[in-house]
Amino acid sequence: MSQPGTSQPNEPAGAERKLFLGGFLLALFITLVVCALELAGGMPAWPGLVRYTVALLALSLAASSPFFDSQKRGLLSWESAALVLTVLILLTAFLTGPEFNIMLAPLLVGFAQRYQDLGRFVKLGLAGFGLGVIEFLVFNWLGFKSVSGSAGINLLALAALTFSLANYLQHYYKRYQTLEDEAATKASEMEVAHEIQTSLMPPTTYTSGNWALAARSLPARNVGGDFYEYVFHPSLEDTISGVAIGDVAGKGIPAALQMAVVRTLFRVEARRRIFPSETLYSVNMALQAERSFGMVTMCYAMIDLTTNTLHLANAGHNYPLLLTENGLKEIGLPGLPLGIDDSIEYEEEKIRIEPGNSVVFYTDGVPEAMDREGNLFTFERFRTCIENHQHLKADDMVAALLEDIATFTQGAPQSDDITVLVLQFQPQAGKINQTDQLEEHYNFI
C-alpha cells in the first residue's frame, strides 16, 4: 500500500502513451490547419508541416507529465527528454526556418509540470515569458528575423492548448481508473454477498413425509429482500411443520440486511409460538423496537401433519393460491404488513389439503414482472400458468412458472425480486404413518 502524497510506482505504462497520443493528435490537427492557411496564402506548405509537427510533438511530449516527473519513470527521464527535444527542434529550425522560439516552450511546460504546486496560470505565464525572452535575445544574437511578430504568442496558445488537453486526459484517465477499480471492488463484494445470501437460503427442494416443497428466489440485483423459510418440527427430525414467504420493501443491500433481521426474528418466534397468528404478532412487536425498519409483508402456513390441514396467517402479503382438481382458489387473508402498527392482531384460517393439492406462494415481483415494452406479467396470466402446470410435481412446477415469466419478459431487466414457493401434498404408498407419533404434539389444535 502506498503512502499518501507519493506516486504509485506501478501505474499502468499505457497512461503515458495515451497522454502523449492525445496531445499529438491535437498537434497534427492544428498542423494541418496551419498548412492549409499557408497554402491559401501562396506559401509552400512542407516547411510549415515539418516545423509545426515537430514543435507540437515536442509540446505533446512535454505536457505528458510522466516524462518530466521526478517521482515517475516514464519512457524517458526529464533530462534525456529535454536533450532529445532540443536536438530535434534545432535540426528542424535549420531546415525550415529561424523560429528558435519553439525550442524553449516544451522545456518550460515540462518544468512547470514537474512542480505540481504551481498553478496553471503560473505555468503558462512562465512559458509565455520564456518565449518572449528567447524570441528577443536568441533571434537578435544569431541575427535571425522572425517570420511573424506574434510567433511567441501563437506558440504560447498552442502550448496552453496542448497543456490543457494533457491535464484533462491525465485527470480523466486517473478518474476512470479510480471508478473502474471501485466498480470492480463493488462487483466483487456484491458477488460475495450474493453467494452468502444464497447459501443461507433453505434448499430449493425438500421432501418431508407426504409433503413436497420447492422454491426459487431471483433477486433483481445481486442480493434482494425476498425470502422463504421452512419451519422444522421441534420434536421430529427432518420433518417440515410449516413454510413462510416474505418481502422486505426495497431492493439491494438495505433490503437484504433487513431481510436477514426478519428471518432471524421469525425463526426464533416460530420455535416459541404455536399458531401462525401468534408468531406474526410476536415478530411485528419485535420490529416495533426498530423505528428505522421498513415495511415487511409475510405469509406463514403451519402444517398439521395429523389432519393434513394448513393454519395460515398473513401480514399484508400476496394471497396464497390453492390448486385443486376443481381449479384455482385464492386464500384471502387480510392483515397489515409487519413493522407498521404494534396493535395489530392477525387472523388465522384453516385449509384442508387433499391428496394432489398444491398451495402456491409468491411475491409481488411475479405479477409485476415487465417485458421490454413495459407490459406487466399480471396476476391473471400467473393464474393461467399455474393451471396449465397443475399436474407437475412441486419442483417442476416452480421451474415451469419461472420459465413462463422469463419467456414473457424476453430478457428485460428485472425490476423487482421474484420468489415462488410450492407446497404439495403427495401421499405415497409405503410411507410410514406418523399419526400416532404426532397426535401428542398437535393436541393443542
Features of this protein?
445 residues; alpha+beta; Phosphatase 2c, domain 1; 2 domains; six-stranded antiparallel beta sheet; five-stranded antiparallel beta sheet; 11 strands; 48% helix; globular; disordered C terminus
Kindly describe this structure.
The chain is 48% helix and 16% strand. Strands 1-2-11-10-7-8 form a 6-stranded antiparallel β-sheet, covered by helices on one side. A 5-stranded antiparallel β-sheet has the order 3-4-5-6-9. The protein has 11 helices and 11 strands. The N terminus and C terminus are likely disordered. By secondary structure, the protein is of the alpha+beta class. Strand 1 and strand 2 form a beta hairpin. It has 2 domains: 169 residues, no CATH class; 238 residues, PPM-type phosphatase domain (Phosphatase 2c, domain 1). Helix 4 runs antiparallel to helix 5 and helix 5 packs antiparallel against helix 6.
